[in-house]
UniProtKB/TrEMBL annotation, chains A, B, C, D:
Family stated for the protein in its record: Belongs to the chorismate synthase family.
Function of the molecule: This reaction introduces a second double bond into the aromatic ring system.
Assembly notes: Homotetramer.
Cofactor note: Reduced FMN (FMNH(2)).
Pathway(s): Metabolic intermediate biosynthesis; chorismate biosynthesis; chorismate from D-erythrose 4-phosphate and phosphoenolpyruvate: step 7/7
Name of the protein described by the UniProt record: Chorismate synthase
Species for this entry: Clostridium omnivorum
HAMAP family referenced in this protein's UniProt entry, alphabetically: Chorismate_synth
EC nos: 4.2.3.5
InterPro entries listed in its UniProt record: Chorismate_synth (IPR000453), Chorismate_synth_AroC_sf (IPR035904), Chorismate_synthase_CS (IPR020541)
Highest classification ranks of the organism: Bacteria, Bacillati, Bacillota, Clostridia, Eubacteriales
Domain of life, source organism: Bacteria
Cofactor(s), by name: FMNH2
Length: 361, 361, 361, 361
């Protein structure tokens, strides 16, 4: 029942796609952080729609307004609340959808849970637009982590069946992550980008959509973060990641592939390199017993294809209590994966920020 | 930092593999549940070691002793604490491992996090043995859910590269789940069992181990459970699942496969069947917007191969600050997947029990 | 570290006295509550400053703007965030106080905790102005409770040494509470009001302030609310009450007086009246073992005199690291007790709303 | 619904007065604390019954058994669970009370809340005996705090109407607290002890009981602990204190007396003494804006007289649904205040331990 997450930094999300504004309140921030507003804007721009033919033409600038907790250029340490006003609302588009449940969306479950009182316009609180406040919070978290040398990065590791090269989980360096960060369509194997884009545009032409996978990494994390059992690093990262609309799978290190291995292959053998304990491989994704070991934390998140598609689909009219056909018009992304990268990174940054605030001060 | 999980039922786990006892305290249980002690015992027997040649010869009966919260055959509603005494302890086996970090285990991260004060014998608090209290709590949760008609079941869906048939996510019935529950080595495609067992025994012969995947299902769940964002059903199930030692991946519904689909294939189209809204397919795994839709909830968890193997491995002696070779002797499971089924089911039961206690009373 | 409270309804407060706005985000609200905006306004008007000579001349209308979670006149069930814009800000008044710590205020502790980065203007986040969002949230909670017949009321039970008659804890009725609710200066013994007001005005004339006590009651509460130990009704009410700036004592039922009694006097003896179990007396304040028994819940909260006074006081200049004299100018309340009644009621309503949402649905 | 408290150290309490054992699980303890078992025993002995004619003759040694989280003399950092076995149980005493609700006890509210399934023997989970695990946890917390120079002490500041001298809130020193700690009946004004004891023995002779007040202090606390609003030091201390059976009032600093003061008297004026900011008075009890200021934290808790008295009282038989008379036989304390001192100190230590673990590491 909760729109609040975090033990040490408490993130409270609110808002609906076509309401006045969406936003987030962050309680527990350290004081004295000189916010880099330009960095926050650039992170939000990475997620913002309407940039190119690969994404929805809904053009939202996603400008944020900090309401509290920020004074003379620094965080005060008291709750920081930020709003993102909804400017480009075309609510009429959605009026006819009030009782017709879009397949793949939360229309039906939202209708049930809230007894029909939920704001159905554009998915309301379930909208992917609610990831904008996550990116805002994540940008602040990233700034905190960056100052400690911790870098979070990601790439499109799969669109449909086309796969990018995976991260080198042992030798991953900040240069590569920074390079990927600059790209609008970040892939490791540059030659894969064109085929991936073609797949997206093909789907678009067909009034359809396509899914994909994001691979992310956190490097330079101190060891000792996390706990056995209920607050394992995997538990906390997965908790936040599965809050992001559209994610249906999360795996760490070798992930599902590790299930095919023998122990002698899967175990990351250790050695000492100039006084630092390292592992030859990194199948564990930098986490053992729920705790970081100092190697890169690597994970992947599987995104389903955008639920809004122009093709006719079977569904129900919940008030008429009857089967109907639906064709979702309006402005949609043929693929959300490339826009989801900053969201995945933000969720990871939010989680690590919370954990570090509790463990290392 | 937390050994406590749950909002409405609070599970507090404690204990070390070779300490006096392991156990769990459950706060927030409903009063008046007539505990089915035989059922709890049978669930714990499913997980218990030493049953056959596929698992470790450490023979623990895993008998539990309820300390509180249980009176005249019923739960009192006040905290129920149960202990499982450690009877078959061979601590000497582990003395030499005090400073030599076993690859794949949490020895190194535990050493760091607890500054060397952790109980290193048999992995201490990180031991897979700590899943016994989870199965205890899960059995109570299951009893509660069963009374509402909700059934949780699972099968071995993969050992190494050998894959079982997946659940029919649309037409899954209690008969199938009950049938699987009776088996020591539950698979859907019976002919796969022999090959899987062979793979395990081969690994055993080679003093090695092998990983696998568990697929689980929850049927007859009421719709409306869960929330958008931070308390999505996926978030809460994944949080608990990733607390189980050895799990490196979790996926719901079509999971990672959904990322290869187009929206027109991935979207579960809806229809009304005798007044009930259903979907033709169930790629979403019964969850949309973080909320159950009444269809079966399906998920898979990837287990890494057992970390303890008899083969020589490279590692470090943390006190000698040097590279060493290790050969882990003692009693190990060549594969934990078949023993993990009740643990995965227990985690799911614990999570759903907590969620239902908060939403439906 | 937390600006968030509540298990079932999560209240997240934010804002500073002289920032852009103050506000609150409420997560976990039931859907379908037709908000009575006029009632919310009237509750906020009870707290609002500038009404008469007994309170500060800072005239804030305390108009709220609902940002989310409210659609077509009903709560949606998704987080409801409301802002109260700060309109009447005279920040210059406070510039000279930046480093001079006002006695009785949180200036010094805030400076330390936030390393000088806190918004010092008007007390910033520590300001009594932050009680406005509490009254907003409390009004929604009250509406929910009122629909179940539960009424929360209060009176000024003490100003300085002048004491009002206490509630009749056994026979307290809604008529009396409703009558008190209408008054700007609610007392039970009407004749005490004049003397109390005189005390306040005398303090004002002397550029001083005066303290007092609020007595509050919650009637028609169902029995069974609350828990033994950590979630006792007293624990939860006191937790929220002690969040209100200026409260230094909280007592339930006979409170500190019960410590002077013998058991034979203090014990509330029971009897059955038309099938309902009642008590002859109500020294326990309607709570036994942390759980409501169906009798009125009665409590009192002691407020210190307003910290801002015009008289010269000794203090320190934290940057000059020296002793200085201060005379707090600006707009102050000579007494906050009469304005605190709706805040105390709001805190009680917020707590009971949270508890009931968890227990009774 | 919660038997768990704490954000950074999570305390999970369990057990019933006449069940197998009572206990507590502590999650989040630092590793490497060499537990002073003798100190824990001595703290538990302070609370233990049966020591003299002032308390109940139920002789329980309150010996604890640590089950987990303790290895080779040090805390491991993983959950520490301790049991206190119930040895001296006379359950038959209580059988006749199964349906007759003892006035002043939680019999009726417990019966309602748990639908009659609660363990009614000796109050079950509501028993004052459950404060033994609190003292155990408090002793560990105290050891942690003592190492940082922080000392918690208390005295009987009132029995019935006889009042002890209050602490000097400004000049309170460790010598005085240590002196009080040694006494079985700690008062500041030694001459008051005899009259207080006489009052208790008089009540005992009359088969009655008497209430009282405990005053406690925490000295050498670092400033900056706590937060504005929902995690104020007062909120957190009061939350735990009101969990202790029998407490009906809690006040900080001047407490209810501050409500009679003018601001010019109540405000604690500041000055710099050798570079340290101090206050001339300490009416705030060392807490401003919910945050410690470095002065002693002072608070008082009002205890009701023991509910169990031998005098005849009116009550109800809940199953017979009729009015009856009850005379509570068995072993009772005529006054619990002198045994409550270590419990009050333990609650304070537990709360401060939790807060410091989160803020200072």
């Amino acid at each position: 029942m909760s729109g609040v997450w975090g033990k040490n930094i408490q993130y409270s999300i609110f808002g609906e796609s076509h309401g006045k504004a969406i936003g987030i309140n962050m309680s527990g921030l350290p004081s004295g952080i000189p916010l880099d507003l330009e960095f926050i804007k650039s992170e939000m721009a990475r997620r913002a729609p309407g940039k190119d033919e690969l994404s929805t033409p809904r053009a939202e600038k996603d400008e944020f307004e900090i309401i509290s907790g920020y004074f003379n250029g620094y965080t005060t340490g008291t709750p920081l609340c930020a709003l993102i006003w909804n400017s480009n609302k075309l609510s009429k588009d959605y009026d006819k959808l009030k009782t017709v449940m879009r397949p793949g969306h939360a229309d039906y479950t939202g209708y049930l849970k809230y007894s029909g009182f939920n704001d159905y316009r554009g998915g309301g609180h379930f909208s992917g637009r609610l990831t904008a406040p996550l990116v805002f919070a994540g940008a602040i978290a990233k700034q905190f982590l960056n100052e400690k040398g911790i870098i979070i990065g990601s790439h499109i590791c799969q669109i449909g069946t086309i796969k990018d090269t995976l991260f080198d989980a042992v030798n991953l360096c900040s240069e590569q992550l920074n390079e990927l960060h600059k790209s609008n369509f970040p892939v490791i194997a540059a030659e894969k980008a064109a085929a991936m884009k073609e797949l997206i545009l093909n789907a678009k032409e067909d009034r359809d959509s396509i899914g994909g996978v994001v691979e992310a990494a956190i490097i330079n994390l101190p060891p000792k973060l996390g706990s056995p059992f209920f607050d394992s690093i995997e538990s906390q990262l997965a908790h936040l990641l599965f809050s992001i609309p559209g994610i249906k799978g999360v795996e760490f290190g070798a992930g599902f592939e590790i299930s095919k291995m023998r122990g002698s292959e899967a175990n990351d053998q250790l050695y000492i390199d100039k006084g630092i304990v390292k592992t030859y491989t990194n199948n564990s994704g930098g986490i053992l017993g729920g705790i970081t070991n100092g190697m890169p934390v690597i994970f992947r998140a599987a995104f389903k294809p955008t639920s809004s598609i122009g093709k006719p689909q079977n569904t129900v009219d919940i008030e008429a209590n009857d089967n109907v056909e639906i064709q979702v018009t309006g402005r949609h992304d043929p693929c959300i994966v490339q826009r989801a990268l900053p969201v995945v990174e933000a969720a990871a940054a939010m989680a690590i920020f919370d954990i570090m605030k509790g463990q290392i001060q």
